[in-house]
Design brief:
Structural class: alpha+beta
Largest sheet: 6 strands, mixed
Distance between the termini: 32 Å
Radius of gyration: 19 Å
CATH topology of the largest domain: Endonuclease III, domain 1
CATH superfamily of the largest domain: Hypothetical protein, domain 2
Strand content: 5-15%
Shape: globular
CATH architecture of the largest domain: Orthogonal Bundle
CATH class of the largest domain: Mainly Alpha
Strand order of the largest sheet: 2-3-4-1-5-6
Order of helices and strands: EHEEEHHHHHEEHHHHHHHHH
Number of strands: 6
Number of helices: 15
Helix content: 40-55%
Number of domains: 3
Length: 316
Amino acid sequence: MVKLGKIYTLVFKPLKPYSFKLTASAYNFNWWFNGSYLILPLGSSTISILRELNGEVKCTVYSSSSINRGVVEDSIAFHMGFYEDLSDFYTKICSDSLLRGVPLRLAGMRLRSTDPFNALLVAICQQNASFKQGWRMLMNIYDKYCGRVFVNGLEARILPSPLDIVNAGVEGLRGLGVGYRAETIFEASRLLSGLNLGELSINDFEERLLKIKGIGQYTSRLTLLFSRRLYTKPPIDRWVSRIASETYRVPVSGVEKFYTNYLGSWAGLGIYFLTIVLDAVPLRKAIERVKTGRIYPEMKGLTPLTLWMLGGGIDT
């Protein structure tokens, strides 16, 4: 197991308002967030450990080799959304039927982005699956394929690469409860292995994704949302379509147009926060919550904001 050494410490002053805990905790496992410290993997041999202190975020970077300080600093700031100005987004949603509570209850929360291949794994696992089902699959993949490194005598996990999946073979995936997605994950890993996905343009990356069997518009857009913070192409699935259609009185076929006209360049972020305020509950429960005005995170049971509190896995 590789041992990583400390190479430097960075200090960030995020654009206010900023909520480190909400940003770090959403859609995360306790392998990487414990309520105070966030481990942010930055490749196969580099991680950063972040903690908020007095309105600043202190970040200690560990690696097995030297790495450009400026590149790492930019990468961390991007992943954490430190300098993303949400004032225009807040203005657009302040009286919205679904999102009006975000500027109050979730003030300062940003989408925490991840590396492109990990974003793709998230998106594939969410195909035709509930939040609970999708993240159980993802947990199984991480548990089997994440790399392990030592930092200060403690074990930390590194995100799996396309090559890790290719070397394991499709049969290894089939035993993880991912169903038909095993072939999609393996084929995507095979075709993307060897590429520096972070250096591809958004258009090039999107085109490559859409050529992979089993990946359609929703999966590619969700991948771009989580990896590139691409908000202009909202990932619309049945869950979003039904909720938006009933709330805004627009046809299901017109939901994407509605979102892009209404939220403009923030459309994708609006959908991200919709999953947060409704705890990503199944569709029928989500619609009931909207009807009864419960459009805020209740954080009961397994939700995007409580996933990190999990100690022993996701119950079936």
